[in-house]
């Protein structure tokens, strides 16, 4: 049984009622099929009403769900022969970023992604998915290796942001992120990025300079968290819901603004409801992306990446962000 978010309570309660009636029917042999059918119809309508009209803040909650699939989960469902590689060859191995080589549809690729934990112990080990500089340097090492052996790079983005601690800053956190931005911009192999959870600040962008950027329907991608923005703009983190709306950090908004290329449909209620089905949705988009990018020369790949990022943020004459409160 999946844990549920507050706004899902009516759906969960109705689903439990249906299960209760079905169990009662089996135990007592009483035909309640008519009542069950009516409730199932009502459940479908309720799900359409709730999941078809999610607010930005509700999407933020889904993106942060503790059971949301991670990079490791998708590696297991999308790729074969995965070999994880460790270390940045400078300081150490950061478990907040995983990476290695694998096969996709029989072709060799390099996979890199943020990795958070599924429980408290693993979250501590992986620093809650917030990388240190050595994590980004490990990622860059694997990208340059992929370029050397002409392997496409697939990046999964899922982090609140780079770790802001003293030790990370002493080891050059900002330089490591800036170096990744510079080097990724010039990689002479296809780079496909997929935001699978939270895409927060430079910690996300350090794996996000790609030819194609895709984003799961209920993921977020932003320069700062809604709570952080609310604290800065209104001196009150309780305005997070309003900040999420104003910042336009969800996939539908970012698709409209041209920041991402494709919004990947999610399983109703969130990717955690059915990872196998969700992986198939991602698979379809990945296959199309890699097929189109493989038709381009290395010079064309770099030029396409340059043109893509040059267009982001173009002013069209109307205000993109409103600073007014509701």
Q: How is this structure best summarized?
A:
This protein is an alpha/beta fold and 326 residues long.
Structure description:
This protein has 326 residues and is of the alpha/beta class. It folds into two domains: 8-53, no CATH class; 60-310, 2-enoyl-CoA Hydratase, Chain A, domain 1 (Alpha-Beta Complex), CATH 3.90.226.10. The chain is 48% helix and 15% strand. The protein has helices spanning 9-28, 33-51, 56-63, 71-78, 120-125, 133-148, 166-170, 173-185, 201-205, 226-234, 240-247, 251-257, 275-293, 298-311; strands at residues 80-84, 97-104, 107-114, 153-159, 191-200, 212-216, 220-222, 262-264. Strands 1, 2, 3, 4, 5, 6, 7 and 8 form an eight-stranded mixed beta sheet that branches. Strand 2 and strand 3 (107-114) form a beta hairpin. Helix 4 (71-78) crosses helix 13 (275-293) and helix 10 (226-234) packs across helix 11 (240-247). It is globular and about 70 Å long. The relative contact order is 0.11. The model is unreliable at 319-326 (pLDDT under 50).
How do the helices and strands line up, and which of them pair or pack?
Layout: H1 9-28, H2 33-51, H3 56-63, H4 71-78, E1 80-84, E2 97-104, E3 107-114, H5 120-125, H6 133-148, E4 153-159, H7 166-170, H8 173-185, E5 191-200, H9 201-205, E6 212-216, E7 220-222, H10 226-234, H11 240-247, H12 251-257, E8 262-264, H13 275-293, H14 298-311
Parallel strand pairs: 3-4, 4-5, 5-6, 5-7, 6-8
Antiparallel strand pairs: 1-2, 2-3
Helix pairs in contact: 1-2, 4-13, 6-8, 10-11
């Amino acid at each position: 049984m999946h844990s549920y978010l507050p706004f899902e309570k009516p759906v969960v309660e109705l689903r439990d009622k249906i299960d209760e009636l079905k169990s009662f029917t089996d135990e007592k042999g009483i035909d309640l099929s008519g009542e069950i059918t009516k409730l199932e119809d009502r459940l479908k309508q309720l799900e359409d009403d709730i999941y078809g009209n999610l607010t930005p803040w509700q999407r933020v909650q889904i993106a942060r769900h503790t059971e949301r699939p991670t990079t490791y989960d998708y590696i297991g469902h999308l790729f074969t022969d995965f070999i994880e590689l460790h270390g940045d060859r400078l300081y150490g191995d950061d478990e907040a970023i995983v990476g290695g080589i694998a096969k996709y549809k029989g072709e060799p690729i390099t996979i890199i992604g943020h990795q958070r934990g599924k429980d408290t112990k693993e979250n501590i080990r992986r620093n809650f998915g917030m990388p240190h500089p050595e994590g980004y340097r490990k990622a860059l090492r694997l990208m340059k290796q992929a370029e050397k052996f002409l392997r496409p790079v697939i990046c999964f983005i899922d982090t609140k942001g780079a770790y802001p601690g003293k030790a990370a800053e002493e080891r050059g956190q900002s330089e490591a992120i800036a170096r990744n931005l510079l080097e990724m911009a010039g990689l002479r192999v296809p780079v496909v990025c997929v935001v699978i959870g939270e895409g927060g600040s430079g910690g996300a962008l350090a794996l996000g300079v790609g030819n194609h950027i895709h984003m799961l329907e209920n993921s977020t991608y932003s320069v700062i968290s809604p709570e952080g923005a609310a604290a800065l703009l209104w001196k009150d983190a309780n305005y997070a819901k309003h900040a999420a709306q104003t910042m336009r950090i969800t996939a539908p908004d970012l698709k409209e603004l041209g920041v991402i290329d494709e919004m990947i449909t999610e399983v109703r209620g969130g990717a955690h409801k059915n990872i196998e089905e969700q992986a198939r949705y991602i698979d379809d988009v990945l296959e199309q992306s890699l097929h189109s990018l493989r038709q381009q020369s290395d010079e064309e790949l770099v030029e396409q990446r340059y043109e893509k990022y040059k267009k982001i943020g173009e002013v069209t004459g109307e205000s993109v962000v409103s600073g007014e409160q509701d």
